[in-house]
Design goal:
About 30% of the residues lie in helices and about 15% in strands. It has about 190 residues and is α/β, with parallel strands linked by helices.
């Protein structure tokens, strides 16, 4: 805006679905999304005279996180699904301390949520007792403030205040995300 004083740029968050909705509604020119635009969203946009042009910039790595004081280092996909379905209520059931699990999830308008819902939950519902947060940043903050919380965030939100868990022995990383993108591009 310093170089172009007649241009106004404002940035806000709120989830991939909200960004895409803003494109469709014409309230923004550019939106970020951690998921691809859905066919029904493209159809709705075109009906409103908007022609969205998706452009992939990067892949993300979504990983489960806990408070740094939590002794758990690795968790299985089945355990994650059980926790998020509400079947595992105590950390001791997954080799942790004898404390209640505090489940934190992204809001359903989040692209991160959609990937988690598809890949981990296999489209099963997250149990109603989960605490919903509107953004990856809010999710990370909530975990940082609660010793018994578990959540999932994109790799870019990983910081010293949360601890990433490996899943089935696999550690999330930029290198793994790059290799996944190479693998996916070969499949296309």
């Amino acid at each position: 805006m310093k170089e172009n004083p007649d241009v106004s740029i404002s940035i806000s968050g709120g989830g991939s679905g909200n960004g895409i909705k803003a494109i469709i509604d014409g309230t923004t020119d550019i939106a970020d999304s951690s998921r691809f635009i859905k066919d029904k969203e493209v159809k709705l946009a075109v009906e409103k005279g908007v022609y969205p042009v998706p452009f992939r910039v990067a892949y993300d790595c979504i990983m489960p996180v806990v408070h740094p004081s939590n002794p758990i280092k690795d968790i299985s996909m089945d355990q994650l699904k059980a926790i998020y379905k509400g079947g595992v209520k105590n950390w001791k059931d997954v080799s942790g301390p004898d404390k209640k699990v505090v489940v934190i999830s992204s809001d359903t308008s989040s692209g991160t949520y959609e990937v988690w819902h598809k890949k981990v939950m296999k489209k099963a519902k997250v149990f109603p007792g989960a605490l919903l947060q509107a953004s990856n940043g809010a999710v990370a903050q909530a975990v940082a403030k609660n010793k018994y919380a578990i959540a999932y965030i994109g790799l870019g939100y990983l910081n010293k205040d949360v601890k990433a868990l490996s899943v089935n022995g696999v550690v999330g990383s930029e290198e793994g995300t790059f290799m996944q993108s190479v693998h996916n591009s070969k499949l296309m």
